[in-house]
Amino acid sequence: MSRARSADLIAHFVVKTARAKEMIDWCGRVFGARVVHDGGQVVFLSWDGESHRLALVKLPRFVRYVFPFSRIRRKAYGIDHLAFTYHSIERLLGNYERLSHLRDEIERLETSRKQIAQLAAGTA
Is 38 inside any structural domain? Predict the structure, then answer.
């Protein structure tokens, strides 16, 4: 079995939320994040030299209650995606090959992602 090779960096992550103001405040307190751009629908935050580490897609507050089923809600609410940085294409492709053999583990991680989305939505 090949050795695990993580990404070199987490480049950024995107969260769809009806609690953008609260998340901005929380990230400011916890990470020292600052708003680097607010486009109305999407706000970008950073806490280092990167252009953005977190993007918040602002949703109306009622969205928290509209989707009673998590399978439907996850399409519209919660973590949208995570982006990782690899310093070489060889590292990226090596990790892809290693992970392609771990379907059961990936499915377990998908279950965890669903649980995180529920926490972000405040429904867990």
Answer: yes
For the entire predicted model, the pTM comes to: 0.58
First to last CA, the chain: 36
Share of the chain above pLDDT 90, in %: 13
The pLDDT score that the predictor gives to residue 49 is 83
Retrieve residue 1's tokens. Answer: 């079995």
Residue range(s) defining the domain that contains residue 90 = 9-121
CA–CA separation, 72 and 20 (whole Å): 21
Residue 33 sits in a domain of what CATH number?
3.10.180
What is the rounded distance in angstroms from the CA atom of residue 15 to the CA atom of residue 12?
10
What are the tens digits of pLDDT across the range 70-112? 555 555 666 767 777 888 988 888 878 877 777 676 677 777 7
Report the alpha-carbon angle 41-45-46, nearest 5: 160
DSSP 69-111: SHHHHHHHSEEEEEEEE-SSHHHHHHHHHHHTT-HHHHHHHHH
Domain count, the chain: 1
Q: What backbone phi and psi angles, to 5 degrees, belong to 57?
A: -90, 115
